[in-house]
Amino acid sequence: MNSTIDTAELVQSIKQLIYTLATPRPVIPADKQLWDAAACAEYLGVSSQHFMQRIAVSPDFPRAINIATGTSRNRRWKVAEIMRWADARQEKKRA
Length: 95
Fold this sequence. Notes:
The chain is of the alpha+beta class. The protein has one domain. It has four helices and three strands, in the order H-E-H-H-E-E-H. The protein has a three-stranded antiparallel beta sheet with strand order 1-3-2. It starts with 6 loop residues before the first helix and ends with a helix. It comes from Vogesella indigofera (Pseudomonas indigofera).
């Protein structure tokens, strides 16, 4: 196996990487973003299993949006609602 790197290919790859990193990506405001269960769990600092079994089913937790993709159902939550819910819980603990 030849482990030498073609300099021209390396330069081209670096140029492409620079272009990709320099291209601005649209910023989606928090009130328009959706998170899946894993992202919600990560934000709240719990496991995905704990999130789905304990938190997502809580009556005061924001309702999920069901996004049907073929035969599966993908639940998503509005980021702004999750953040407000977490902030409100934190305020209750302080009181």
